[in-house]
Amino acid sequence: MDKNQEKLMQKLGMYEQQIMQLQQQLESVEQAIVEMNSLVIGLDELIGSKEKEILAPIGRGIFVKTKLASEELTVDVGGKNLVKKSIPETKKLIEDQIVKLDEVKKELNSNLESINNELTTTFMNAQGEHVHDENCEHKH
Fold first, then answer.
1. Domain coordinates of the chain in residue numbers?
2. Minimal CA–CA distance to 95: which of 87, 50, 107?
3. What is the architecture, at CATH level 2, of domain 3-46+72-139?
4. Considering the entire predicted model, what is its pTM?
5. Would the pLDDT of 33 be above 70?
6. Residue 9: which pLDDT band, with cuts at 50, 70 and 90?
7. Please, what's the b/e burial string for 98-127 (b: 16 or more CB within 10 A of its CB; e: otherwise)?
8. What is the residue-wise DSSP string for the chain?
9. How far apart are CA 93 and CA 82, in angstroms?
10. Were 55 and a residue from 9, 63, 101, 134 both cysteine, which residue would form a disulfide, CB within 3.0 to 4.6 Å?
11. What Å distances lie between residue 130 and 123, 137, 140, CA to CA?
12. pLDDT tens digits, residue range 90-132?
């Protein structure tokens, strides 16, 4: 393997690694969007449910049956700051987060497209150099 092929393989490996990282990030963002949308639906189901029995999560996959005492929610707004919010206020917060996640998703897709374009250009240039090298050899 000559130095040009070695450099090409290194570049291709680098692009492959970047693509894999972006795809993982994209998958995480898409999963977060799905979870946020489910949460909005769940909040809708709480409206008018005061004094009704619900299953409340107390840990990973563990639920307790409880009565809903209020439709007022306690929301972590970051930095372990807990504030009281109504269901519509909480839905608005979540919908704002979904918008931000959609923006991140678009940016990740754009970065992925950019890397794919760079990869294609690198590959096409390498093919051109290979053809050029073969032509040079035939002339000698």
1. 3-46+72-139
2. 87
3. Orthogonal Bundle (1.10)
4. 0.75
5. yes
6. confident
7. beebeeebeebeebbeebeeebeebeeebe
8. --HHHHHHHHHHHHHHHHHHHHHHHHHHHHHHHHHHHHHHHHHHHHTT-TT-EEEEEEETTEEEEEE---S-EEEE-STT-EEEE-HHHHHHHHHHHHHHHHHHHHHHHHHHHHHHHHHHHHHHHHHHHHHHHHHHHHH-
9. 13
10. 63
11. 10, 11, 16
12. 999 999 999 999 999 999 999 999 998 988 888 787 776 655 5
Helix axis angle, 3-46 relative to 87-139, nearest 10°? 160
Sign of torsion, CA 64 65 68 69? negative
What are the structure tokens assigned to 16, written together?
Answer: 């492959």
